[in-house]
Design goal:
The complex is a heterodimer. By secondary structure, chain A is α/β, with parallel strands linked by helices. Chain A contains seven helices and 20 strands. Chain B is an alpha+beta fold. Classes of the chains: A alpha/beta, B alpha+beta.
């Protein structure tokens, strides 16, 4: 893949955007992995963008191969759901009303089986696409509890006048500063809108101070309550942090799709001409064997029957390419040191619904590349 | 090392020796890999000696194992719904450990450096391993160990009382990823406490309130 780094015009644009976007503001709601973890260490600044594995600043097609680890026979039950989740991410099709039994923080946790395709779609969002939760998670520094409020860094409380957590009227409070890490749509602050607007630095921002629509206090995120308030039923971002048994969410919202597309705008974060040589697309591919070509390895592993842990993504982010000074915008999802793969692990001790999706490798269309032999 | 073998009592309490109650102290010494850690802990039934908790950030499920001076092991399974909602207790069980089991838990923690390190030190080591880039601590939760000793010494350094609290993210996954004894300690403590709770329940004949499916 040829690298076309940002042109001087692009760099200038980025610099200007940085000035406009960085300085603290109060911050819809797509976020990128690694930002929360690294702000506290002083490694990244809130506008950092994380990209899929293999991204190095170039335009073109990023191919990410994903396999099933052979540690347990049960792992192969994940093949069908994995293939379905791969297709969903590859299609980047925004939807509404596709979330069955979705719950938000504040609602009781049901009992039952976990939908594997939903969980894989979520973890691929982290490990393969580089995007993070849209809402606040308890592990966030200073945070009191997980909630549906929009993800940020440093908030110690949130003032929510209308009782819809994570929507436009929230005020995130901290005596010192709240770092905005969530990207929102400038024109509407509506994370569910499906239209032809191209997601990039010209249409999305983190800066609530500079770019929120009039009357809005904070970036809205794509949780189910906000969706309902905007007229979308049973709709929730796959990257909302809370999951549970019985939840079936096998599709993407506009917020999931557009957050990924912000990254796809490439090094200059601008999707359109004349700076589009750095734009990239991606192709996630199921790989039958976890060999050196595979980037992500998926497995079931015992994490405790009562631990409540559904799974996780073993990864880190590294600079996509050398970027000097504070202009460290671009980060790439990468395996941990000492590992050949990004790891997606699901709790083998839980009860799973593996769905009715059967393994498909393309053989029905004459593609035998996954097979060692074909007869005749 | 002083040990007091006891028979578990069916019901709710240990039958502790009177002299032991008067002493109100357990004492123990460790001769692990480094050979010279010694500790004592309270035998007061009201004294928390050890706590292990885990929190699942995607589901709000919290498990807490609290070990008290008389060997009482309280297990709580809570679900936090977040925001203003209070946690719902899904399971609360009490069982009693033998002295050696109790000491074994503390020994395991101390042998894995959990009395003498800090959360920050573990994190810095993980950062060092990953060339300064922290791992994504997403979805796999975090666990906390709290140790409350009346005295702890190693190599002439005596702390009395000696308390330590450590929180790390994704301990079980990290135990696979790194060779750090602290992560392995967390993993083993989780495994050991769960097993001890199950064994103690069987000994005491307590009924089990099992639920089907996942929480």
């Amino acid at each position: 893949m040829n690298m076309h780094r940002s042109s001087s015009l692009g760099l200038l644009t980025v610099c200007l955007a940085l000035v406009l976007c960085y300085f603290p503001s109060k911050s819809d709601a797509g976020t990128f992995v690694g930002v929360l973890e690294q702000i506290g260490d002083g490694n990244v600044i809130p506008y950092a963008i994380a990209h899929p594995p293999g991204y190095s600043g170039s335009g073109g097609v990023l191919k990410v191969d994903i396999c099933i680890h052979d540690t347990f026979l049960e792992n192969y039950m994940l093949v069908g759901p994995l293939q379905a989740a791969i297709e969903t991410w590859n299609s980047l099709t925004p939807t509404v009303s596709e979330c069955t039994a979705c719950i938000v923080w504040g609602e009781p946790l049901p009992s039952g089986a976990l939908d594997s395709e939903t969980s894989i779609l979520h973890e691929l969002g982290h490990c393969a696409m580089g995007i993070d939760h849209v809402n606040m998670v308890k592990s966030t520094p200073f945070l009191f509890a997980s909630s549906s409020f929009t993800a940020s860094y440093g908030a110690t409380s949130v003032t929510d006048a209308n009782g819809i957590p994570g929507d436009f009227d929230d005020i995130q409070n901290n005596a010192v500063d709240v770092h905005d890490i969530s990207w929102f749509r400038r024109d509407s602050n509506n994370p569910f809108t499906i239209d032809a607007v191209v997601a990039d630095l010209g249409t999305y921002s983190r800066s609530t101070a500079a770019y929120l629509p009039a009357g809005h206090n904070y970036a809205a995120n794509a949780n189910r309550l906000v969706a309902a308030s905007l007229g979308f039923s049973n709709t929730q971002a796959i990257m909302y942090s809370r999951s549970a048994p019985l939840v079936v969410n096998r599709a993407l919202t506009a917020d999931d799709v557009n957050t990924v597309k912000i990254g796809m705008a490439g090094a200059d974060l601008l999707a359109g001409p004349p700076n589009d040589a750095d734009n990239y697309t991606f192709q996630l591919r199921y790989r039958a064997v976890c060999d050196e070509e595979a980037e992500i390895r998926v497995e079931l592993f015992p994490l405790g029957a009562e631990s409540g842990v559904i799974g996780g993504c073993d990864a880190r982010v590294v600079l996509s390419y050398p970027q000097g000074g504070i202009l460290k915008w671009h980060w790439t999802v990468t395996p941990l040191v000492g590992s050949d793969f990004l790891g997606i692990t699901f709790n083998k001790d839980l009860v799973w619904d593996f769905g009715d999706r059967i393994y498909a490798s393309g053989f029905e269309n004459g593609d035998f590349s996954d097979w060692s032999a074909a007869v005749p | 090392m002083t040990t007091h073998p006891r028979s578990p009592i069916r019901g709710r309490r240990f039958r502790l020796g009177v002299s032991l109650l008067l002493l109100c102290l357990w004492s123990g010494s460790l001769h692990g890999a480094d050979g010279d850690a010694e500790f004592t802990f309270s035998a007061d039934p009201g004294a928390l000696v050890f706590l292990y908790s885990s929190f699942a950030t995607n589901t709000g499920v919290e498990r807490t194992f609290s070990l008290f001076g008389d060997g009482r092991l309280e297990y709580r399974l809570l679900v936090h719904s977040g925001e203003q909602a209070s946690a719902i207790t899904h399971r609360a069980e009490t069982s009693y450990l033998e002295y050696l089991e109790m000491e074994g838990i503390l020994q395991l923690a101390i042998d894995h450096n959990l009395m003498e390190t800090t959360s920050r030190a573990i994190r810095e080591e993980v950062l060092r391993i990953n060339y300064g880039n922290p791992p994504l601590e997403i979805d796999c939760g975090y666990s906390t160990v709290e140790i409350y000793l009346t005295e702890f010494s190693r190599g002439g350094d005596i702390r009395s009382p000696a308390v330590n609290k450590i929180t790390i993210f994704c301990p079980i996954l990290q135990a696979r990823n790194y060779g750090l004894p602290e992560h392995e300690g967390f993993r083993l403590l989780d495994e050991r406490l769960t097993a001890l709770r199950d064994q103690a329940k069987k000994r005491s004949g307590d009924a089990t309130d099992e639920e089907g499916g996942n929480l």
